[in-house]
Amino acid sequence: IKTNDVGEATKSEIESLLPDVQRIFDRMGIQYVKSDLMAMLDVMDTDGSGAITKTEFCRGLLHIAHRGEDMQPVLMMELQQDALTFVKRKVERLEERATR
């Protein structure tokens, strides 16, 4: 998969992996709904960057595989961390522009 300079891939790049994900889930006996995999692409971009990181992708698949059971508190903390990282990156870029 092609990624940008910060390791993010486009949703279409990630979508090309879904047949492999489905085969792995089937082999492991993980129940899922095919439409859930497609819909998850829309919400995997938790930091709002417009692309999906490896962490966001893995977290999304884990959420589907576990149906969110027993990982909601951890997921919420990770989402909060993603949001803080996103805001921090935006502020740093704005500061860089302001000092030029």
Structure description:
With 100 residues, the protein is mostly helical. The chain contains five helices and two strands; from the N terminus they run E-H-H-H-E-H-H. It has helices at 11-15, 18-28, 34-43, 54-66, 72-99; strands at residues 8-9, 52-53. Strands 1-2 form a two-stranded antiparallel sheet. Helix 3 (34-43) runs antiparallel to helix 4 (54-66). The longest helix is centred in the last third of the chain and has 28 residues, at 72-99. The radius of gyration is 16 Å and the shape is elongated. The relative contact order is 0.12.
Describe the protein's topology.
Layout: E1 8-9, H1 11-15, H2 18-28, H3 34-43, E2 52-53, H4 54-66, H5 72-99
Antiparallel strand pairs: 1-2
- Give the beta-strand count: 2
Instruction: Give the termini distance in whole angstroms.
Output: 35 Å
List the strand order in the largest sheet. Answer: 1-2
Helix content: 55-70%
Residue ranges: pLDDT <50 for 5 or more in a row?
none
Mean pLDDT: 77
Task: Assign the structural class, choosing from mainly alpha, mainly beta, alpha/beta, alpha+beta, or little secondary structure.
Answer: mainly alpha
- Give the number of helices: 5
SSE run: EHHHEHH
Strand content of the residues, in percent? under 5%
Main sheet attributes: strand count, strand direction, barrel closure: 2 strands, antiparallel
Computed CA radius of gyration, to the nearest angstrom? 16 Å
Shape: elongated
